[in-house]
Design goal:
The longest helix has 24 residues, at about 165-185. This protein has helices at about 15-25, 45-50, 65-80, 95-100, 120-130, 165-185; strands at about 5-10, 30-35, 55, 85, 105-110, 135-140, 150-155, 190-195, 195-200, 205, 210. The chain is α/β, with parallel strands linked by helices and about 220 residues long. The strands form two sheets. The protein has an eight-stranded mixed beta sheet with strand order 3-2-1-4-5-6-7-11, with helices on one face. Strands 8-9-10 form a three-stranded antiparallel beta sheet. It contains six helices and eleven strands. It has a single domain (about 5-210), classed as Rossmann fold (3-Layer(aba) Sandwich), CATH 3.40.50.170. The chain is globular and about 45 Å long.
Length: about 220
């Protein structure tokens, strides 16, 4: 049975598009029940409408506290009976109550090799640190920012000619490969989150998850 998913976005929604494409191609057995954004002009909402997916805007500026906004967001998600919540460039810090409500049922993708470079401006920070490699991580979401257990990471080399923009493009290409893969594992019930640890095929993963290679599926 197809996995019911709600996707949260704040911007262009390129990862959302990768999920839509793979779903249409039959590579990913999910049904995206809704796409929700806190930004009215997020292009991802247009991607959703084009794919005949309900596109919902909830303006965080209309709420006086994070808790109030998260309560409204939670209510909307739960109307769609989501089995998995997917953060795809959702630029909001989530409250503890919200993350607890979706414990083990919410994934995020972050443009660094966690636990390195939590937060913003990861590409420039990796260059400034003199790192030789950079990448992207899929992780379960907890109340602590970008600190949830890692499922999957993909790595790219930082070349001397790279700047933040070129490195961002490399990482984006990797994102569109590993996010659908992690969600596929979840939809197949191969991936689980128990007591703060990630299990794949009943085997506990390391703290940095699995390193992506072209032949894993």
């Amino acid at each position: 049975m197809s996995l019911s998913v709600v996707v949260l976005i704040s911007g262009s929604g390129s990862n959302l598009q990768a999920l839509i494409d793979q779903s249409l191609e039959g590579k990913l057995d999910i049904t995206i029940k809704a796409v929700i954004s806190n930004k009215a002009d997020a292009f991802g909402l247009e991607r959703a409408k084009k794919a005949n997916i309900p596109a919902v805007f909830i303006d965080h500026k209309k709420f006086s506290t994070r808790e109030e906004f998260d309560a409204a967001l939670q209510y909307e998600i739960d109307q769609h009976k989501a089995e998995l919540v997917v953060l795809a460039g959702f630029m909001r810090i989530l409250t503890e109550g919200f993350t607890r409500h979706y414990d083990g049922k919410m994934l995020n993708i972050h443009p660094s090799l966690l636990p390195k470079f939590k937060g913003l401006n990861t590409h420039q920070r990796a260059i400034d640190a003199g790192d030789k490699e950079h990448g992207v991580s899929v992780h379960f979401v907890t109340a602590e920012l970008d600190a949830g257990a890692v499922v999957l990471q993909a790595v790219t080399e930082i070349e001397p000619s790279d700047d933040a923009e070129s490195l961002s493009k490399k990482v984006h290409n990797l994102e569109h490969k590993i996010y659908p893969l992690a969600i596929k594992w979840f939809s197949q019930k191969r991936l689980a989150y128990k007591s703060g640890k990630v299990m794949l095929d009943s085997e506990r993963l390391s703290d940095t998850g699995i390193r992506y290679q072209q032949d894993i599926h």
